[in-house]
Every structure is written in structure tokens, then in C-alpha cells.
Write a structure and sequence with these properties.
Largest sheet: 8 strands, mixed
Distance between the termini: 63 Å
Radius of gyration: 33 Å
Number of helices: 11
Strand content: 25-35%
Shape: elongated
Helix content: 25-40%
Structural class: alpha+beta
Length: about 425
């Protein structure tokens, strides 16, 4: 905006520059306060604060002259209002809530005295348990009953609050799933993989079509007002993020292969297990996913990572899997006598079913699924899949080298 005086002389062009005529000296008697902002509410808050602070130095303390702001369009007044607003408002807080939050026992009339002490007056009681305060223009930070309780605690004095031993005895520790996640991150990193952290939102094309999967939008949580086409749904798989990481690192050398992994949450639609009062219809699933891309497909590298993860989680290979590796010239059976594993926990690696949702992601005949058996669960649990990516998937993500990926659920391993 341009600030002009009565003679149409430019006084200021905020926020670029001020003029010689608008400079403040020791002889200045009249001060015009102007506030420029992109948000009118915030501008009024700043203006109220500046005016109230300056007003104590006026010839007549705490008095200000109002300014009429007039909006014109083709010499027609479209809107007008008077500033500064210097508006006050009422906020309420429960007496027992304030006492509980601070850890004190104050009577309502004592709280009224403290509120008047900290410029939240005049305060009053709407009933025996409801405190009403008046928020002045200088206290734009009062937004919630918690803010009122904090100010009462300050007025009461933190040093006056009696220290007490909590009535409940609890021991805090890391969630088991998070602990497993952190341990796996270290171990997979030692295996030569670089951890990435990708965005939780993606497009429907990247989440389904580009991976060669049927579009099942009902299985994904969709955004009602996405910012752009890249943020349409919450991801239901970690693969798009890993493949886009490969895409954006095409200039790097693939001679010795590129290894990336991510352990993070995906979100699946779930109305069946919603047990809270606020039914969100979705659940988080913790997964680990890894990709290898290089001169060769690296199927055996990703396969080895799957076996390593199962070894670290103390799950032994099943009998069919051991026989299959022995038939292929492996020595897994001889190593089993040294394995540390949980009783009754076994896993199998089987060919991926032709009707599986992920079948289109992998090269035909080069995909497998990992199943888990554990005590107390009769049916096999499908942990995830791994295999060589289909050439069409590589083309969709503009990856020039053959690649293999794996993706497993972590929660069933606990």
C-alpha cells in the first residue's frame, strides 16, 4: 500500500521503504501506525498489540485515535471499518480442570483474584465450577482453557506448587513394534542397504496402475481435496516410494548395484476393526520393503535379505523350505542346528499365487510369497512377497536396470 498525507505526498511505501517526512524524531508528537499483512486477522492482532503498547507513552495515556479503513471500487465504497478494533472476548475454563492440570486445590474465588492479577479480568463465575475470563487485546495467545490454566499457575507461582509422588505407578518403554523397527533398521543398514524416507501420499496411478495392479480405490484412503494429482491417496504399499527413489538417482552408478530400503507405515481401509467412538475406518500397517537394482536382477540378494530378517526375528524355516533349498544344492538343513528360533514359529517361501493382487508387479515365474506359522494361529499368515519386477513396472517408473523388491508385514512377527 501507499500511505499519502492530506496533500497527496507519499509518506511511506510499506514494507519497501519509509520517507524522510515519515521519520520519527524526539520532537514527534503524532505517530501513525500501519500494519501490512497477507492475513487480515493476524494484521489486526499485530496492530492491537502495537497500539496498546505505544498508548502508554501518549500525552493522554492509553488513548488512541481511530482510523477508518475504506475500500473503494470505481469511487464506490464497497466496505469500511474502524481500526484498531481493540476487541475483547470471553473465554471459559472449568475450575476442577484448572486444579487437576496444575496439581493444586484452589477455591473459585481465589482463581478470580489470580485472573485479575494476570490481566484476564474482569473474571466471574458462571456457576460453581465454570470460570469466565475477559481476554484483552494484548492477550491474543489465550486460545484454550489450557492457556487460562497456565496463566493461573504462573500467578499462583510454580514454586508454590507442592511436589507429590504420582498416585499411579507406570513404567514407560518403547512400543515392541517400534523397538523391532529400530533393530531391523540397524541390521539392514549393515547389509549394505541405504534407508530412505518417502512421502506417505501418492497418486492412484503410482499406487496401483504403475505397479501392474488392479485399481481398488476402496482399499485405499482417498483425499477429498488433494493438492495435486501426486497426492490422491494414502499409500497402500511402500514400493512406489522406493522406485521413485531409483528414478531420481538414475545419474548414480549402477555398476555395483543400488540398494534401498524403507521401514514405515502404510494405511489400509478397515471398517471391521473400528472399536473407538470416532470410527476412522482405517488402520496403519508397519512394513519393511527393499529394492535392489543393478546389472543383474539381484533376486538372490533380495531373497537373502528376506531370510536374514526371518533369522533376526528368530523364525525358523519350515520343512518344505529346507527340502527345497537342499534340492537346489543349498546347505540350510545343516545350519539349522545352530539357529536360535522360537518354538513353533516357522516360515515358508512359496511360489506366488496366480490370483494374488501383486502378481502383475513381478516378472512371470520370478515371484514368491512368504508365509508364517506361529502358535495360537491355525491358518498360515501371508507376510509379504518378493521377486523380480516386471519390465512394464520398471518402464512406468523410468528405471533402466533390472530390479528385485521385497515387502513384508512386521506386526505378525511379534
Amino acid at each position: 500500500p501507499v500511505v499519502l498525507d492530506a496533500n497527496d505526498t507519499v509518506m511511506s511505501l510499506p514494507p519497501i521503504i519509509n520517507g524522510d517526512r515519515s521519520k520519527i524524531t524526539l520532537d514527534t508528537k503524532h505517530v501513525f501506525i500501519e500494519c501490512t499483512a497477507t492475513d487480515l486477522t493476524k494484521a489486526n492482532i499485530v496492530l492491537d498489540t502495537m497500539v496498546t503498547m505505544f498508548s502508554q507513552y501518549c500525552a493522554s495515556p492509553y488513548t488512541v485515535e481511530p482510523v477508518d479503513v475504506i475500500y473503494k471500487n470505481a469511487d464506490v465504497i464497497t466496505n469500511s471499518y474502524t481500526t484498531p478494533a481493540l476487541s475483547t472476548r470471553k473465554e471459559t475454563a472449568k475450575v476442577d480442570f484448572v486444579n487437576s492440570l496444575i496439581g493444586i486445590e484452589l477455591e473459585p474465588h481465589q482463581m478470580l483474584t489470580l485472573c485479575n492479577k494476570i490481566q484476564l479480568g474482569p473474571a466471574s463465575l458462571l456457576d460453581a465450577n465454570t470460570l469466565q475470563v475477559t481476554v484483552p487485546p494484548t492477550r491474543s495467545d489465550i486460545l484454550h482453557p489450557v492457556d487460562i490454566a497456565e496463566d493461573i499457575a504462573i500467578a499462583y507461582g510454580y514454586n508454590n506448587i507442592v511436589k507429590r509422588v504420582p498416585q499411579t505407578c507406570t513404567v514407560g518403554k518403547e512400543q515392541p513394534l517400534n523397538l523391532l523397527t529400530d533393530l531391523l533398521r540397524d541390521e539392514i543398514g549393515r547389509a549394505g542397504y541405504t534407508e530412505v524416507l518417502t512421502h506417505g501420499l501418492c497418486s492412484i496411478h503410482d499406487n496401483f496402475t504403475a505397479l501392474g495392479r488392479a485399481v481398488k480405490q476402496e482399499s485405499a484412503v482417498s483425499l477429498s481435496n488433494p493438492a495435486n494429482v501426486e497426492y490422491e491417496v494414502v499409500r497402500t504399499t511402500l514400493l512406489p516410494g522406493l522406485l521413485k527413489t531409483l528414478q531420481h538417482n538414475r545419474s548414480a552408478s549402477f555398476t555395483s548395484g543400488m540398494k534401498y530400503f524403507e521401514i514405515s507405515d502404510i494405511v489400509l481401509a478397515d471398517n471391521e476393526h473400528a472399536i473407538t467412538e470416532t470410527i476412522v475406518g482405517a488402520k496403519n500397517v508397519r512394513r519393511v520393503s527393499a529394492v535392489y537394482a543393478g546389472p543383474t536382477s539381484g533376486f538372490e540378494i533380495v531373497h537373502g535379505l528376506v531370510d536374514r530378517i526371518m533369522t533376526l526375528t528368530e523364525v525358523a524355516p519350515g520343512g518344505d523350505y529346507i527340502k527345497a533349498t537342499q534340492g537346489a544344492g543349498g546347505s540350510m538343513g545343516e545350519e539349522e542346528q545352530f539357529r536360535v528360533s522360537r518354538d513353533g514359529w516357522t516360515y515358508e517361501v512359496k511360489a506366488l499365487d496366480e490370483d494374488a493382487e501383486e502378481i502383475g508387479t513381478y516378472f512371470p515365474g520370478r515371484a514368491a510369497m512368504v508365509t508364517l506359522r506361529k502358535p495360537g494361529v491355525e491358518e498360515e499368515i501371508v507376510l509379504g512377497t518378493f521377486g523380480i519386477l516386471h519390465p512394464n513396472v520398471l518402464k512406468n517408473f523410468d528405471v533402466s536396470y533390472p530390479a528385485s523388491v521385497m515387502e513384508l508385514d512386521l506386526a505378525p512377527l511379534l
